[in-house]
Write a structure and sequence with these properties.
By secondary structure, the chain is mainly alpha-helical. It has one domain. It has four helices and no strands. It starts with a helix and ends with a helix.
């Protein structure tokens, strides 16, 4: 993989992580999910909102893990 491809991938992963962060904060109504993690999502009573939160949390985790591997 070339340096340009790696930089592009890092930028795209950063965008995915930022999108997930914004959506999770919007869905939860606060930023506490960042310190509480997955437990904050389980307390959401509305099933649709909880499902969206779980989706974005998975996106957040995946983007962060891939970013860590790429460096």
């Amino acid at each position: 993989m070339s340096i340009a491809q790696i930089k592009n991938l890092q930028r795209r992963l950063g965008n995915l992580e930022q999108e997930a962060t914004q959506e999770l904060s919007r869905i939860c109504g606060h930023d506490l999910w960042q310190s509480l993690g997955f437990d904050a999502l389980d307390s959401i009573e509305d099933a649709d909102r909880r499902a969206r939160a779980n989706y974005y949390y998975g996106q957040f985790q995946t983007a962060r893990e891939l970013s860590d591997v790429i460096g």
